[in-house]
Design goal:
homodimer; about 325 residues; alpha/beta; Isopropylmalate Dehydrogenase; 2 domains; eleven-stranded mixed β-sheet; 12 helices; 11 strands
Chain lengths: ~325, ~325
């Protein structure tokens, strides 16, 4: 199946030196893939030599005179960055040239531009950000990671519908389990919106698991965890913070004296393996769900291998026609009431 | 200064085999400390021999025929566990015999009983749970960790006032920095309540820092982080989940083959040091703030050294008269409007 993806070469802390080698990895992995490399043509030219001639033939360079900065407010990005690599990549999806856009740029800007250019499907007001979290017994799709705050019960329910479609496509599961993120203190178990969302999920055709707590996310207990974007963003960032703290402590402790430095020689493989298994980059590529099109957000600090994972996520979504499946499912829930 | 603390010997996954050795540690640390050991007298008798005669003379055993179970709903615990170790420990505070109660039991039950027996100070409807999180550059007090959901801006503001008093007493800081937990996506920066709370904090006498994000908690960037209890509980549990996942991965990777097993011999000290620095037990003892009395909640799975930390936290709160200081500060904010 021939698929075409528009890659924002410029976005994020990463630049052409990451996104172009990543493009090469993706082209090697998927025979039917062709890419639009969107960004500053001088910068692209400087790195395009890393691709083989055959790979270069599968790429089209689209020059973008502007760039969305990480500090740009979404409203500014929307109004004043119409010639940016991010905007042009999404325009390529809108115009039917590309099946998906991938960017490591400013999340707020990407959300705003994608929503404005591609529009959301009926029943969805704002797209939700769905990421994959590593876990002891497997990975978990989690949404929303920060696009929607104060989500209503109905919105939480729709996150469940969308997450279920994505987990089914990416994880190749027929009936993914869907759980609601809650807190465990019995007296105050949940807030009103979560309780109402539970009622909606119970009555639905989804494979509703029930409530899970924050620590369950990293067990891989369920396929999809649903939460409000404020809560999801705090959970994501907190977990990144703990992982970074532990890495700092490890760096510090293993360099405390000569013996400890020596000991790293012996434990290097184990330490690297631990880091790789817990690495969020392993599952890089958060999907903006609920749009009339596929947009995948890479982590801002991705390396070429993890940016390639984000492109890979877009390929899977294209092949499974995720936006159409989501639209069908949401429509079903709308007409049923 | 003579201080007296009621210790719930039975609560949590821990029992007398943890809480009694912990009591011994606390008695050694604080010369003026005396304890009420509240629980099943047979179980207490079985472990009391671990205390020296002098230590035993500083303890009074209070027999409790009942126990709050971890599965008890708070309403059940309140109605049907009036002779439990948890309830009797809090009664001792209410009756002026003890200056504080410490328990590793069911959080919801502890909240409900403490609130019913001790009552909250004027201006506070429900107490907030304030814990200490480890961080790269120091520890951070964080509240609320799960007692209040859907907190209003006014409530978030009062969490800031209470957390500031506690951080000042425990951390010995004159003007602790207070931050609001928020999310970083610019367009949707925060929800309405957080934005309004920011306005209240800015106008207050507190040393307001501004917004922080989830990963900042584990940097030790500020002294106090304020958030809604739903959000705080998810952040706490998520971070525990990540730490547990990394520990699992480490256990797994370091036992993968003979060489790796051997390598742990060399890295044991570094690995232990990392675990100790990141150990939540190191800062064990979450305070229930806003009560007319001192109640400290220990982690349910604490060991004797970390349960002793919870008793230690209670001693510091007693010596600094934290409930009175909180009451004064809250009253000030109430009369000012």
């Amino acid at each position: 199946m021939a698929v075409s993806i528009a890659v924002d070469i410029m976005g994020g802390d990463v630049g052409a030196n990451v996104t172009i080698p990543a493009s090469s990895i993706a082209l090697k992995r998927h025979a039917g893939l062709s890419l639009y490399l969107v960004g500053d043509e001088v910068k692209i030219a400087a790195h395009i030599t890393r691709l083989s001639r055959a790979e270069r033939n599968r790429c089209k360079i689209i020059h973008a005179p502007q760039q969305v900065e990480m500090s740009d407010k979404p409203s500014i990005a929307l109004r004043n960055r119409r010639e940016s690599s991010m905007r042009l990549a999404i325009d390529l999806v809108k115009d039917g040239h590309a099946h998906a856009a991938v960017s490591a740029g400013n999340t707020g800007a990407l959300m705003a531009i994608a929503r404005f250019v591609l529009k959301t499907i009926p029943g969805i007001d704002r797209p939700a950000i769905c990421g994959i979290m590593p876990g002891i017994y497997g990975a978990t799709h989690m949404l929303d990671l920060g696009a929607n705050v104060d989500s209503s019960a109905e919105e939480l329910f729709r996150f469940g519908v969308m997450g279920s479609v994505l987990a089914s496509a990416i994880g190749d599961k027929e009936r993914p389990t869907v759980a609601l993120l809650n807190i465990g203190e019995e007296e105050m178990k949940g807030n009103e919106r979560v309780k109402q969302a539970a009622t909606l999920l119970e009555a639905s055709e989804l494979n509703y698991f029930g409530y899970v707590e924050g620590d369950d996310i990293f067990k891989g207990k369920v396929d999809v965890v649903v939460c409000d974007g404020f809560v999801g963003n705090v959970a994501l960032k907190s977990s990144e913070g703990v992982a970074r703290m532990l890495t700092e402590f490890a760096r510090d402790e293993f360099s405390r004296n000569v013996w400890r430095k020596l000991s790293t020689v012996f434990s290097k493989r184990a330490l690297t393996a631990i880091r790789n298994r817990a690495d969020p980059g392993r599952y890089n590529g958060a999907s903006l769900l609920g749009l009339k099109g596929i947009v995948v957000k890479s982590h801002g600090g991705a390396d070429s291998s993890s940016f390639a994972s984000a492109i890979n996520a877009a390929v899977i979504e294209i092949k499974n026609n995720v936006p159409q499946l989501i639209s069908n499912q949401i429509e079903k829930t709308l007409t049923r009431r």
